[in-house]
Design a protein that fits this description.
heterodimer; B: four-stranded mixed β-sheet; 8 strands; 5% strand; globular; CP2 mannose-ethanolamine phosphotransferase activity (chain B); PIGG/GPI7 (chain B); GPI-anchor biosynthesis (chain B)
Amino acid sequence: MSATPKKVKKTVSFSRNSPSLSDRNPSTEPGSPVAESGFDFADDEPQIHELPKPSPAFLLLPFHSLAIVYALFYHYNISSKVISALHSSTLAVLTLQFGFGLITLTTIKNKKRAKKHRGPNGGELMYLVISSLISGFAAVPIFLVLLVFGAPIGSLSEETAFLALHLSFLTVFPLLLVYKFTDPDSGDTWIRLLTFQVPAFYRNQIYLQAMGALVGCWFGVIPIPLDWDRDWQQWPITLLAGAYVGSFAGSLIGYLYSIFE
Amino acid sequence: MVIDALRADFLFSNESQMTFVHELINDGYALGYTAYSNPPTVTLPRLKGITTGSTPNFIDAVLNIAEEDTSSTLGDQDSWVKQMHASGWKINMFGDDTWLKLFPSYFAKTDGTASFYVSDFTIVDNNVTRHLDYELSKEGQRNWDCLILHYLGLDHIGHKGGPASASMPAKQREMDSIIRRIFESTVKKDENTLFVVMGDHGMNEVGNHGGSSIGEVSAGLLLVSSKFKKLQSEQKAPIPRNPDFDYFGHIEQIDLVPTLSTLLGLKIPINNLGTFMHDLLPLYTEKDRQNVLIKNALQLKVLIDKSRSKVTSLDSEIDVSSLSSLLHFLHDSKGTLSKTSSDYNYRDIFYGLAGYTFTALISLALFFTYHRGRLSEAGVDLLFFILYAVNFFGSSMIEEEHHLWWFFTTVFVASVTVKSQSIYCTTLLVCLRLLKAWNNSGQKNNIKSNMKIATYVASLSPDIGPVVVAFLIASTLATYCFYVTEGVIVKGKGDGTTLRFLTFVSTSLLCSITFSTKFLSYLSETYDLKSGFKEIPDWCSKYILWIGQRLGTTDINTVNQQLFSLFYKVWLVTIAFHLLKPLAFKIWKLPDPAHNYTRTILITFSQLLISQTNFNNVPIFLLLLAILLSFQKLVPVSNLNAISLFTILMQNLSFFQFGFTNSLSSVDLTNSFNGLSSYNMILSGLLTFVCNWAAPIFWSLAYLHLTLKPDGRNWERLYHRLLVTLTFYSVSGLVLIVSCYNLRFHLFIWTVFSPKILYFLSWTACGLLVDFGLSCIVTALYIK
C-alpha cells in the first residue's frame, strides 16, 4: 500500500465567507437590513450576497408554538385520538399562526420605518390573507417531500397531510412575512431560501425559526420505533411536537445570538 | 409424529384443512395444545428441547445450518430417546436427519431426509410415508416400540410461499390423511398406544422461523390416545382463527418431556426443566397423581439444588401430600430454572473483548494517521459510527435497524443534494424512497403502516399479475443488458464492436436464463401448478410448456435445476473473460485494455446476484442502478469520503430493504439450492451468502465502478474505503460486544442481541470476502 496520500481539500463553502461578510455588516441595529441588500462585489463570490433579514426582536419569538404543543397534548388529547385532535385543532392553530403573522408584520414594519408605532393597514392584511392561502397550498409540495423522505405511503395519509399543513405554516408562512412575494427580486430570494443558500443564517431569526421546525420535525421521528409503548409514540405526534418546539428553539437561538453578540 | 413448522392454527383453526384432527378432538380421543417453543425456533435446538426438556443453547441455531457438523450430537445428555433405548425399546425413525445427528446410535431402523432442500415439497415427505405400509402392518408393528416420523414438506412450503401458500391446504390434507392412517392402525386397536402430533416450531407471516414472534413460538401439539376419552374433555374444534394463536391450553413444549416419560413409565431425563401437564392427572388414581408429581418435583429439585449448591430434602420445603402445593412448586422451579440456565464462560468472553478492543485501537490509529490534516472529516465519520453503534444498547433499535439506516441515509443524501439544483437529486431521492417502499423490513409493525410494493405486486390477480411481474423482471434485466453494452448505437467501427457483441451475447444469455428462472419461481410460488395450469393465463402455460419441451421435462424443479446449472457455466466463463480481459489485451498489445472494465464486472456480478434474489426483489436492482448512476452525477470522484460513506450506508440500507432483519427468521434459504442436485455445505453456504448479502456485494463493486480510474491511484482510493470500512466494523463491533456483555442477563439476550452478533459476524465475513478480497482482486486485474 502506498503512503498515505496528501490531498489538499478544496472547500467551497459559504460558511468560510460568511463571517467576514457579517463582520463587515454590523446589522444588529434596526434599519440596517435594507441597507444590506444588494450585491457585495468585494467578496470572492459575488453571487452569494446576504439576504435581507429582519432585525431580531423579542416579539418575533413564536411563543404560540409552545402553547400549541401544550394544547395538542392536554386539550385536544392528541395521544389517544390523533385524527380528531388534528381536525379540531386546525382552526385554532391557523388563527394563532395568523395572529403571529400580524404581530410579525407590524413588528418588522415598525422596526424598519423606525417611526411611531402603527397598526397594520389594509394592504398588509390582504398580504397576510394571501400568504396564508399560499402557505396552505404549499402544504402539497411539502406533503410530497415528506413522502420522499419516508412518510408512510398508502396508509396514514391524512396524518401526513395535516403534518404537511402544520409544517407549511411553520416554515413557508413566516418566511413569506419577511421575504415578500411582492418584492422585486423575490424569485431569486426564494430559490436561495429553498436551496438553503443563506449566508449568516445563524443571525437570521425568521430563517432559523423555519430551519428549527424542519430539524425538529426530522429529529422528532426518532422516538417512534422505540419500544417504550407510550401512546404518544405515533405518527405524526412526535414530528409535530418536534417541529413546534424546534421552531421556537430556532427563533430563540437567533434572538439570543444577536443579543449577546 | 413431528410436522415441521406446524403452527397451532394449522391444526386447530377454522381455516385448517385437517378435518380428521378436529374429529379426534371432538370425539375426545385427542387433546390439543398451543405449545410455546423456546427461541431460537429452529429445528435442531427445538428437537433438543423436545427430547431433553432443557432450554436451548444458542450455538445450535448456527449448527442447524451447518448440516455436516457432528459437534451437535446430544452424546450422553439424557433424553427420553436415551431412556427408551436404555429400557430396551426398539425405536424406528423416519424423516428429518437432524434426529440422526442428535442420536447417532439409538435407533433400530432409520431413513433420514435432508432438511435443507427447501424447494422440494413432495418427495421429502413421500420418503417418510413410503415406510408406513410396512411399519403399520401387523408384522411391522411387532418390530418397534416407538416410531418417530418427522415430516418436512410443510416447513418447505412455508419457506417458499408462506403460510397462505397455494400448496398449503393440499399439504395439510395429506398430513391429515397420514394421521388418520396411523390412528386407525395403532391407537384405535391398542388402548396403550400414545400418539403425539406436534410442530417443532411455528412460522411467522412470511413463512420463516428462527425468531421469537408469536407465530414462530406457537407450535401445535396434539396428544392422541383412546384413554383420553376418560378425561371427558370439553374441547371442540375447529376454533376461529385468531391473531394471538390462542387455541386450547397454553403449555411449554418442554412440558412434553416429563409428560411423555411419565405416561410411558420411563425415567424423566435429568436435565428436564418442564413440568407434567396437570390436566392429564385425572388419568391416574388419587394416590398415583401424587407420585407422578413427586417424581417430577424430585427431578427438578436436583437441578435447583445444583444451581444454588445447597442440598435440602423436598419434604422440608413443601407439603408433599398436597397436590396443589406440588403443582405450585413445579411451576416455581420451572420459572427459576429457566432464568438461571444461562451459563457464561467469562474467560473466553474477556479474551474476545480484549482482542476486539486491540483491533479497534489499531484501526483507529490507522484511521487518524490517514486523516491527519483533515480531522473534521474523520470526526464526522467517527461521529456517525458511534451514533450508529450506540443504538446496539436498545433492543428495539436492533429489531428496527432499518429505520436507523434510512435516517442516516436521508441525512447524508440531504447534505449532498441540499445545495444542488440538479434533476439527479430528485431521481436519487425518489429512487431511495421507492427502495424503502419495495420490501420494507422490521420485526414489529412490519406490515402495519407501510405499503410494500413487493407484496402488492405478488398479490395481483392472475389476469394482470404475471404481466406486471414479467414486465418488472424483464425491464430490470434489459436495463442491465443495455447498460453493459453502452446502449444500442455503435459508435465508429473500431475494435470495440466484436467485444461489445460478445458482451451483449453473454449478458443477454444470462439475462434470459435469469428471467426464466425468476418468472417460473414466481408462477410456481404464487399459483398451484401441481394440479394443472388452470389458474394461470394461457401465455404463461404456453411458456412453461415451451421451456419444458426444450429441456425435456415439465417438472418445475427440474427445469429450474437445469437452467441454473446452465447459468453457472455461462456466468463463470463470462466473469473469467471480463476479469482477464485487460491482462490479455496487455499481453497481446491490443489497444485500450481496461475499457469499460468496472462496468462489465459490476453488471456481470449483478447477474449472479439477481439470479440468487427472490423474484419479488429483482426490480430492486433497477433502483440500485438508478441510485448509483444519479449519485455518480452528483458527487465527484475526488470526494472519496462521501463515496465511502455512501457505500456503507447503501450496503446496509439496501440489505434491510431486501426484507432482511436482524432476526434469524429472515435468513432467506429459498435460493440456497439453485442448481444443486445434492446437499453440498460449501456451495449452498456460498449461495445462501450471495442471496442474503446481494445488496452489500453490489455496493462494494459499485464503489470500484465509481473510483477505478486510469490515473494509477486506484490502490490509494481502495485503501481509503477499506480503512473507513475497517474502522466502521471495529468501532461498531466493539460497542456491540460491550452491549451484549452488559446486557447478558437481559430478557432479550437470546432473541435479539445474540442474533445481531451472528449477523454482525456475517457482515464482517462480507467485509473480508467482498469488500477486501473481491475488491483487491478486481483492482489488481485493472491493468491499463
